[in-house]
Amino acid sequence: MTIEDYATAHSDAQPASLAELYRRTYLTRLYPHMCCEPLQGRLLKMLTSLIAPRRILELGTFSGYSTLCFAEGMPEGAEIHTVEIDDEAEPHLLEAFDASPRRADIHLHIGDALQIVPQISAEPWDMVFIDANKRIYCEYYEMIKPLVRPGGYILADNTLWGGKVLDTTANHDAQTAGIDRFNKLVAADPEVEKVMIPLRDGLTLIKKL
Q: Residues in the chain with pLDDT < 50?
């Protein structure tokens, strides 16, 4: 048993619907490890309950697991907009979302987040989850930060990137280099409060001051 297994066993269990989606992701999707793990999902749900955001933005939907965790924790009257670049995933995502009691509050957008987000940001965001193209995390951050209300939160996934960020050589692959640039950008930003949690592949919590 790993430390994460132990932590999972001593935390709330994921709902049956999410357990089925998690199983289906591993059976049917390429790169299923990209799916949010159950322990992280419970954390995202609890953070959402604590922050009580009215408007959530998610960059990178994948199989919809994290989307449904956010939806589970949202207060009544809140909504989540999730952006996924893979158009082939759309029917599977809609099927998963249709089974949610918060279906009316989940809005799926298919396309490039850098193009879509400005079109759906007439109002400030209370919470944003970045989990899309690791190469351009900095670009996402620079686009999103002005759109988040003061006191709002940005959550960035995969910020430890399998430990590759510890490599001090200059021979980083493009994804590792993108994550490393992002981590340095956030760490040096005096306009936000930030903490990196070494859960799974790294989760950075950022609060806009």
A: none
